[in-house]
Amino acid sequence: MILKCSEHQCRWRRRKEARPEEILDAALDLFTEKGFSATRMADVAKKAGVSKGTLYLYFESKEIIFKELVKTMMSPMVDEAEVAINEFQGSSAELLDKMVTGWWESFWHNKLSAIPKLIISEAGNFPEIAEFYVEVIVKRVRGLFEDIIQQGIDNKEFKACNNKEAARLLMAPVIQANIWKFSLKPYDEALDEKSYIRLHLEIFLSGIKKDDKHAK
Amino acid sequence: MILKCSEHQCRWRRRKEARPEEILDAALDLFTEKGFSATRMADVAKKAGVSKGTLYLYFESKEIIFKELVKTMMSPMVDEAEVAINEFQGSSAELLDKMVTGWWESFWHNKLSAIPKLIISEAGNFPEIAEFYVEVIVKRVRGLFEDIIQQGIDNKEFKACNNKEAARLLMAPVIQANIWKFSLKPYDEALDEKSYIRLHLEIFLSGIKKDDKHAK
DNA sequence: CTTAAGTAACTGACCGGTCAGTTATTTATA
DNA sequence: TATAAATAACTGACCGGTCAGTTACTTAAG
Fold first, then answer.
1. Which of these CATH numbers, 3.40.1350, 1.10.150, 1.10.10, 1.10.357, describes B68-208?
2. Which distant-in-sequence residues (6+ apart) come within 8 Å of B118 by Cβ?
3. Which one of B34, B36, B120 would you mutate to disrupt binding with A, by most A Cβ within 10 Å of its Cβ?
4. pLDDT digit string, tens, across residues A151-208
């Protein structure tokens, strides 16, 4: 019988397939905890259960690891949002509500929610990553909201207004809370995020909807 | 006649009084441009027109310089806001409008507006600074808005709602735009900030005001 | 089946460069 | 001259990335 290393005691195993994801996972955890610059490749290696040299067998550089995180792990989330919108039946207000509540919920509980704060923190020193993130994530997500709002304006559900500005305004409290979660939250007063978002939607939707025609 | 250095050519002059502010100014510029960690003390020294050693005659460490920036330059802005509120005559909605527009305007054009993004970026690695900032700036500013909103609720101008959440919601788009300005702006679509804030106030105030009693 | 030759995944000591902070020395000024 | 202010050379720790060598696994000949 052939005895593989896995059935013996051995210093390491060959696991070519599993390494990249394990390395990305370890990197995300450490980037989240310490930020990109302050994360040491030695620590990533240790957390991923490999040696430092192995990291460079799979990724050219620290920066490439960061970029790969955005590319391979975040983009799929936007795809999901797109699908959800296309399948939706109902008013624009209901769709916005569903999107914000849904996106919020799924994003808030996902490890990846640390990425926006990371990108913002490091944008100055890694312009390429920031540019990539804006093109691939920011503009796309915002575009979804812009379209829904424009639709609401067209069908007289919402007041006439600049839909691009409105989309940013709709997202701002969500993004703001997300960034806060990964920066000042430990030092600040607690916040009930669900209740916060519910109030946001109440105020925002009430503010953007056409006045009832019987109102003064 | 005694000829002072200033009247000769000389390698340097004694300027004990002027140094601290010049150093803080130089540091703020570089922190804004590169972030805290990526800023080199040698560059701060060069920009301030002194040698690296001189920095340490006036400040114990790089971190202390950062902390001092917040302490001596940002706090006075909160004082101003407090005064403006106390002097104001008018409705709560008008006061909120004035505060957001005014705070926005003055902050947006001030060098110090780079500090929030800096703090958020470095909060993980410099908890002491983050804690200090939250206590001295964040809670105080938010408190001002909380009070105005509560007043509006009490005098039936606003709907009953959680004033702490509402205060955060009012500030979120402003802070969000401020952070964006110092991170993703160079890579993102342009934004007319004045118009953006005007729309925010329209939607928010319209959303939080008590419904007209003749409305359905 | 056994095993020796071959391959590629993996390791970890090391290197070159960087940078916050220190100190021996020089210079401006009272 | 005395000394406070400022300099510039220096130190030592740190870290991203490299590479010569090691080991797990594969394969093919016997």
1. 1.10.357
2. B31, B32, B35, B36, B66, B182
3. B120
4. 999 999 999 999 999 999 999 999 999 999 999 999 999 999 999 999 999 999 999 9
